[in-house]
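This section describes the prediction task in plain terms. A model, or a person checking by hand, is given the sequence of a single protein chain and must write out its three-dimensional structure as a string of tokens. No templates, partner chains or ligands are provided. The sample shown here is typical of the held-out split.
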Amino acid sequence: MPILEIKNLTIHFHTDAGVVQAVNSLCVSLEKGEVLGMVGESGCGKSVTALSVLGLLPVPPARVVNGEILFEGRNLLALDPDGMRKIRGNRISMVFQEPMTSLNPVFTVGDQIAEAIMVHQNLRKKEAMDKTVELLRSVQIPSAEQRVSEYPHQLSGGMRQRVMIAMALSSNPSILIADEPTTALDVTIQAQILDLMNRIREESDMSILLITHDLGVVAEMADRTVVMYAGEVVEHARTVDLFQRPCHPYTIGLMQSIPRLGAHGGRERLKAIPGTVSDLIELAPWCKFSDRCVHVTGECRQRNPELVEIAPGHFARCFKDVGVVMS
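The expected answer:
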């Protein structure tokens, strides 16, 4: 049994302009000790999916229309607030996209981590602070005894992200959800954060749901990768298979947009995906990518393709010949 299984999840946001169909019939599973990458451009439903797992969607305007989120066989959507609080931050933790908006600027980082420890592990303040220092050391923050007394603005971006990871790991969670954990960090710090997450995953056999738009991060970290577009999964495969043989036109477009050095050391113009993402308020009942697809046919504008297995463990949502590969 997967440690986390999302079945037919559909989430709508009710706004003055209409109903935003943020996630549509999403099916995803996460195995124990696995890193599952979730990629796609902004607005495709990645973060909404993550927040729904933790029960953090604002209700209203958000509403879970359909589906289940099974954690170790229990449907999280059926839990009452007290039951969800026992899991959120304890069994399932999250590293948010921007640490400066997630850390409280008027409390020291030590107090903020210690508070999470006291809430979930019922420890006294002194014991919680001792564990906080150990956690900061485990995420490779130097002079941890001094850092616990500092405020978020006194730390660099990489340090703040390590504090967020330490806070997320304070209760030894089974699942870590990392939402763009390396955004706005330079490449050196980004590599250190990814190495840190990988080391912790290997040491604790923790599962990671890694949300990102950076295909390089996915290639380095993820065992399997889910590609999302307009609230749907359009391709799903082992990461190595996805990079070697992308099948959905959107995935191919993402691969082709990766900057590469041209032949003879020159530069090549990036290949952009034409058009823009469909309006999620007025989603058509046919293929959501058809307006931007170079392989579009009449069938694409009649119905929405199913997510089908085109090779062992490799799924794609497309009518076209799956033999079409990157050129």
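For orientation: The first strand starts at residue 4 and ends at 15.
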